[in-house]
Amino acid sequence: MRHLTGGLVLALFVAACKTTTPVVQQAAPPKPVILTLGTKAFTTDDFFQSFTKNQLSADSAQRTDVKDYFDLYTNLKLKVVAAEAEGRDTTEAFREEMATYRKQLAQSYLIDKVLVESLAAEAYQRMREEVNASHILIAAPEDAAPADTLAAYQKAVALQKRVQAGEDFAALARENSQDATTADNGGSLGYFTTFSVVYPLETVIYNTAAGQVSGPVRTRSGYHLVRVNDRRPSRGKIRVAHILVRLSPGADESGQKAAKDRIDAAYARLQQGEPFETVCREVSDDLTSKGNGGILPLFETGRQVLSFEDAAFGLSQPGQLSQPVRTNYGWHIIKLIERKGLEPYETLAPTLRQRVMTDTRAEVLRQATIQQLRKQYSVNENKDVLNLAFAKADSSLLRGQWRYTTPLDEALRNKPIVNIADMPYTVDTFFEYVRQRQQPARNPAMAAVTPVSTPVAGSPQVVMRRLLDRFIGDQLIATEEGNLDKKSPEFRSLMSEIRDGVLLSQVMEQHVWERSMTDSTGQQRYYEQNKARYQFPERAAATVIIAPNDELLKQAQTLLARNAPYQLKRATPDLAYSRNQTALNADLRERLFDVLVVMTRNPDYLVEVAGSHDPTERDSVSAGRVRAVVSYLQQNGVPLNRIMEKDYQGEQRPGLADPAAQRKVSFQYFSNAKADVANVLSSAGAPVEIVEGVFAKGANAYVDSVNPWKAGTTVLRPSGKAVAVTISRVEPPRPKTFAEARGAVINDYQAQLEKQWLAQLRQQYPVNVNEEEVRKLVK
To answer: Where is the PpiC domain (predicted)?
Structure first.
């Protein structure tokens, strides 16, 4: 009664002091509760939001009605309540995991999606055109002192005026540009498309007409003058294969001649009809591509050296070969695989959105976000403290080695350098940020470019200013991230789902999944109690050959009937030896590595290692060569049962009249895998498929077509194909053994454990359902 009286007196006092009727703030009515588990309540809104999301995301065939989903929801929440009761949501590991998820999820809420789409669309429009441009770089680091920055700008302006007065741009570039990779060739950047240079430079280039010179444009490297030489429609992307004969830049005349002779010999073999893949494996010095026939990833203009690129895009028909082409890597023969035009925006949009968020456009997106946040949150710098703090910077900051003495002097210690959203951030906090984020000064030239002249030194105070701006931006983003729960119901809901999912995974791992996997006694007991559930129906052990015509079908049947390893068309270059040599030198080991790669990547392969010697060598020489090769393969993981040895000794090997050619070890691959037989027969372009297994009814349409099932071969001709179904045996229905049923048993045992655990939870946390709320939703 005292509380009521006091409240009434206070209300009367307030009313007496005002001339207008006070506005009474009414508390929001409590949200209706649909479910209570023990003492924990869940609202109708929470359930309906979960149900709606499930309906929108689930497969239409698997959607449930409200009542069925309510049972799923109840079971989920029971497990989460159990996890909370076990204190899983209070552990450091849980908090760290949730912080990681939160930061990842927040990214999509802290970025301007409209701007991302705009940049992606802009990039696509630019991709439709390739630009040839030249530039002059006047180097100036991003942290240069204002006077040095101004001097660089004025020099760029002066050069612009000289160009406008008629002086040759290329000559000025050779004399003045500090981009060492392009200065000697008049500043030429060649043809390129979007994402090839930093975004500010790209923008100026694409906004400058052909034949025109831009004004100075600032990048982290300095100031650029850009001349656009030409524009052309996009040539799209291209995929090629190549054979490379490597040539050192410092090779003497004899080395250059040897490389040219090798590439000419390879080109002659191709002209005579030898497969490109074979010549590539035997000749190419590109170890990363020779194993797959020299095929390179798709590329666009500006991604390869100019001479290689021009030769590749000069090919018009798939399969067409270039003549030998010289680059700074050596000599190439290029084969066109495919050309692809620019794909529609709808196809490229997801990739473009990702690229604009990760290339130099990312800074544009960040600054746009920070500008928006500055409108929402106050930012007030303490100028006096800021000036004192900046005075602590010295040249060590430019080397990324700056340290500050603690404790700070009285003028700076614990003094706020900036207030963000009414939160003070002290000098101590900022200095620690600087210590962690400082880096040595960047090279003032473009990426992968070394400046010609000594770069202008940076200013420690400018570095401090840049880092303070970065610090302010980071704190604004962190502030917004911390407020996302209040500002975005969607974010709050997703974080709640993630939280429940992490807790659910933890308790299910302990109470169900791990136990079902490790409890072998429980698995066996469950199997014995439910044997009738684990049965094999009648099944046929069969091999199915599917070929496009009778001829290939017959070839496949003949190969399979031999019941021996199948010889493959694949081969590896021979190892050539000096007279009486049996040991493996460095060159032979490098070539033998190709065999090791093939055997490692193809576990069904066998390899025949065949050695021989010339008539002047002892018979033991060829055997020694074979033993050395086999020993190498064994030591590197190829078991002896996958190696077949063959010693020609003094026999004349077919096609080898030259005695020196007899001094060799050669390789031939075989396989026990029927899939490799299919690959051999499919190499001519007509696909052959071989499938084998034990099939129940409904597992394979071709096996089902044989009626009745009995041992033997049946030839079918569905839809113009030739199909042979060979049934070796018919297995009658029988129970599965525990080993055969173990996977299904574990799944079923998990379901039983989960059911038992949920029953315990329902006793521990009584389930109270508000049926009236459920009925409202069902309607």
So the answer is: 128-230, 235-338
**Helical H segments across 438-488, by residue range:** 460-487
Which of 129-133, 329-333, 560-564 has the least mean pLDDT?
A: 560-564
Q: What is the DSSP letter of 293?
A: T
- 3-class DSSP state for residue 312? helix
As a whole number of angstroms, the distance between CA 400 and CA 390 comes to 16
Q: What is the SS3 assignment for 24?
A: coil
* Exposure of 492 in the CB half-sphere (CA atoms within 13 A): 9
How far is 217 from 201, CA to CA, in rounded Å?
A: 7
Does the model's pTM come out above 0.85?
A: no
pLDDT at 116 over 70: yes
| H helix count then E strand count, the chain | 27, 24
Is 715 strand, coil or helix? strand
Q: Which residues contact 735 (CB under 8 A, 6 or more apart)?
A: 531, 534, 535, 536
DSSP-derived 3-state class of residue 94: helix
Task: Output the DSSP codes for 581-643.
Answer: --S--HHHHHHHHHHHHHHHH-TTEEEEEEEE--TTS-HHHHHHHHHHHHHHHHHTT--GGGE
Domains of the chain as residue ranges with CATH? 129-233 (3.10.50.40), 237-341 (3.10.50.40), 377-485 (no CATH), 536-545+685-735 (no CATH), 566-671 (3.30.1330.60)
Task: State the angle between helix axes of 169-176 and 146-164 in degrees (0 to 180), rounded to the nearest 10.
Answer: 150
Determine the straight-line distance between the first and last CA of the chain, rounded to whole angstroms. Answer: 46
Distance from C-alpha of 712 to C-alpha of 710, rounded to nearest angstrom: 6
Which two three-digit tokens encode residue 679?
């690959």
- Helices 489-508 & 92-107 angle (0-180, nearest 10): 140
Of the candidates 172, 208, 170, which has an alpha carbon nearest to the alpha carbon of residue 189? 170
Q: Read off the amino acid at residue 541.
A: A
Q: ω into residue 659 within 30 of 0, thus cis?
A: no
Spatial distance between the Cα atoms of 187 and 86, rounded to a whole number of angstroms = 68
Cα angle, residue 219 at apex, residues 218 and 220 outer, rounded to 5°: 130
Q: Please state, in angstroms and rounded to a whole number, the distance separating the CA atoms of residues 238 and 337.
A: 8
Over the range 208-239, which residues count as b (16 or more CB within 10 Å of their CB) and which as e?
A: beeeebbebbbbbbbbbbbbbbeeeebbebbb
Region for 526 from its dihedrals, namely left if φ exceeds 0, alpha if ψ lies in -120 to 50, beta otherwise: alpha
- Of 165, 138, 133, 174, the closest CA to residue 154 belongs to 138
At 80-100, the pLDDT tens digits run 999 999 999 999 999 999 999
